[in-house]
Amino acid sequence: MEKDTLILSFESSCDETSVAVIKNGKEILSNIIATQIKSHQRFGGVVPEVASRHHVEEVTKCINLALDEAKVDYDDLDAVAVTYGPGLVGSLLIGIMAAKTVAFAHDLPLIKVNHLAGHIYSANFVTELQYPFMSLLVSGGHTELVLVTGPGEFHTLGDTRDDAVGEAYDKIGRVLGINYPAGKKVDQMAAIGHDTFNFPRAMVQEDNLDFSFSGLKSAFINTVHHADQVHEELNKDDLAASFQGAVLDILSNKTFRALKQHPVKQLVVGGGVSANQGLRKRLAEEIEKRHLDMELVFPPLRLCGDNAAMIGAMAQIQYDKGDFADLDLNADPSLDFDM
Amino acid sequence: MKILAFDTSNKPLSVAVVVDGEVLAHVESTEKKTHSISILPDIKNTLEESNLTINDIDLIAVSKGPGSYTGVRIAVTVAKTLTDTLSKKLVGVSSLELLAANGDKAHILVPLMDARNDNAFAGVYQNSRDNFVSIMQDHHTSMEKLFDALKQYDESQLEFINATPRLQELIQNQFPNAKIITSENSLPDAAKLAKLAETKKPVENIDDFVPTYLRLTQAEHDWYAKGHKDNGNVSYVEEV
Ligand SMILES: [Zn+2]
């Protein structure tokens, strides 16, 4: 029986300060998440300098809570892991400095984790991953299709050419008078409304795996502005349903196009938008409709947004490979899979 | 007392280990290196040069600002995490006071951090029995306002420290007889930081230790300017 591995993990790439203790990459002993949403709601979106300041306020509290809740001490730890990109540079730096300091102070190996890889490996807490598997990454910063061919082996198949899907939700949310983050509310309204506006489904005809949401967003905004000008009252639930209908068509079209090219046994969805109920339902229906023998994996709601547990899951793979970082680790705000 | 001191509040980076008043090792970099990359390797090297480990250190001393927001955050995050994780003592020193330590003790010392557009972070310090006493609180100010406030002093007694070329020009116009130490000649010195820290009370609650920015973010400033009020006691961050 092999010895257990305990990794203290840090995540601070955007507006959540999170520290977790993860056992063997599979078991969450603690996963403390301090969210700044309330703060940024004052400004209608994440303000980087405000986010960085909050991370400094929270970081040691989160470390101590994570250790307490996991009932472990520094002596029990085997490594320290941290998100080093992509994300807001000022935010990333706080987690990186704290993680490097803990690694240095306790002479622990340091593991630098790609935030996107973390989102994908949230699935590790749900199921036994079987390679290769397909991953659909949907968040405020990213919309990607990634084929994972082995532990920590990522191949980006498609990416967004403009806005990320979560970003599009926030932008049309603003037009509907919904404060950031708008995804949850739009999802709820979409469940009530009907897809009556026939917004464009960008690039679904094109034979590639890339996404585009800016045309949809503009069509949405133009529709609302035009109605405002002629003093016409539009049904907001129908607007939400029409927007979400187009989003789901685009996401599902590209995802199943990718799955046709790369038949796999698992479809793993990750990132903030993976909490979307409409998306969960739609992908399940499509799999059934196509009679695919494929497991659909969504993270539990708590692990859809940014959290350090997922960083610990990915870090375990790197730990097993001996993939360690040095104390001169810096943030890489535009990090992606393809180096 | 064994002190590890470091400063990243401006472009230079300075790390020192000082034991019972004696500087055992000292790393200075004036190059435009990235503090986030170099600070921990520099701390490690400084300790190794001193033949000490981090566990031997009794007190961490850090410049807590004002200065470059990112720079100050880097040092403060390392300092508070190090202190917390190893249960050490922590002292935060004003980065302006640290600059004042580069001045002539007989003078009225005006340390500056250029904050662009003819603004600066500034303080006024005087030396009294080997201690620096703040006679005007560190604050963010236009140079014009600062000059007004300094008119009460004898011009030849004034010594401006860490003046960028632009600030130097402004000072010379206003106080041609004042002494000016340029930014190249007033590097923050972590050995002096250690010495200043010895005279100060350690931080009581490490979690609450944050940089002294002396300025709200633009977004918060605008938000309050619109008439929003939070009575200063709203918690904007919550554990979920
Ligand atoms: Zn994320």
Q: What is the secondary structure topology, with strand pairs?
A:
The complex is a heterodimer of chains A (339) and B (240).
Chain A: E1 6-11, E2 16-23, E3 27-35, H1 37-41, H2 48-70, E4 79-85, H3 89-105, E5 110-114, H4 115-121, E6 133-138, E7 143-150, E8 153-158, H5 165-175, H6 183-192, H7 214-229, H8 236-261, E9 266-270, H9 277-289, E10 295-297, H10 308-321
Parallel strand pairs in A: 1-4, 4-5, 6-9, 9-10
Antiparallel strand pairs in A: 1-2, 2-3, 6-7, 7-8
Helix pairs in contact in A: 2-3, 4-10, 5-7, 6-8, 8-9
Chain B: E1 2-7, E2 13-19, E3 22-29, H1 35-49, E4 59-63, H2 69-86, E5 89-93, H3 95-100, E6 108-114, E7 119-128, E8 131-142, H4 143-150, E9 158-163, H5 165-174, E10 179-182, H6 190-198, H7 218-225, E11 238-239
Parallel strand pairs in B: 1-4, 4-5, 6-9, 9-10
Antiparallel strand pairs in B: 1-2, 2-3, 6-7, 7-8
Helix pairs in contact in B: 1-2
The complex binds zinc ion (ZN).
Residues 115, 119, 139, 271, 306 of chain A line the site of zinc ion.
Question: What are the salient characteristics of this protein?
Answer:
heterodimer, A: 339 residues, alpha/beta, Nucleotidyltransferase, domain 5, 2 domains, five-stranded mixed β-sheet, 10 helices, 19% strand, B: 240 residues, 7 helices, binds zinc ion
Explain what the structure shows:
Chain A: Belongs to the KAE1 / TsaD family. Chain A: Residues 27-312 form the Gcp-like domain. Chain A: Its cofactor is Fe(2+). The complex is a heterodimer of chains A (339) and B (240). In chain A, the strands form two sheets. Chain A has a five-stranded mixed beta sheet, with helices on both faces. A five-stranded mixed beta sheet of chain A has the order 8-7-6-9-10, sandwiched between helices. Chain A is 42% helix and 19% strand. In chain A, helix 2 runs parallel beside helix 3 (89-105), helix 4 (115-121) packs across helix 10 and helix 5 packs parallel to helix 7. Chain A has helices at 37-41, 48-70, 89-105, 115-121, 165-175, 183-192, 214-229, 236-261, 277-289, 308-321, and strands at 6-11, 16-23, 27-35, 79-85, 110-114, 133-138, 143-150, 153-158, 266-270, 295-297. Chain A is built from ten helices and ten strands. Chain A is α/β, with parallel strands linked by helices and 339 residues long. Chain A has two domains: 6-121 and 303-321, ATPase, nucleotide binding domain (Nucleotidyltransferase, domain 5, 2-Layer Sandwich); 129-298, ATPase, nucleotide binding domain (Nucleotidyltransferase, domain 5, 2-Layer Sandwich). Chain B folds into two domains: 2-94 and 188-219, Nucleotidyltransferase, domain 5 (2-Layer Sandwich), CATH 3.30.420; 103-185, ATPase, nucleotide binding domain (Nucleotidyltransferase, domain 5, 2-Layer Sandwich), CATH 3.30.420.40. In chain B, strands 3-2-1-4-5 form a five-stranded mixed beta sheet, sandwiched between helices. Chain B has a five-stranded mixed beta sheet with strand order 8-7-6-9-10. In chain B, helix 1 packs across helix 2 (69-86). The model of chain B has no long low-confidence stretch (mean pLDDT 94). Classes of the chains: A alpha/beta (339), B alpha/beta (240). The interface between A and B is large, with 44 and 42 residues. Strand 3 of chain A pairs antiparallel with strand 11 of chain B, so a sheet runs across the interface.
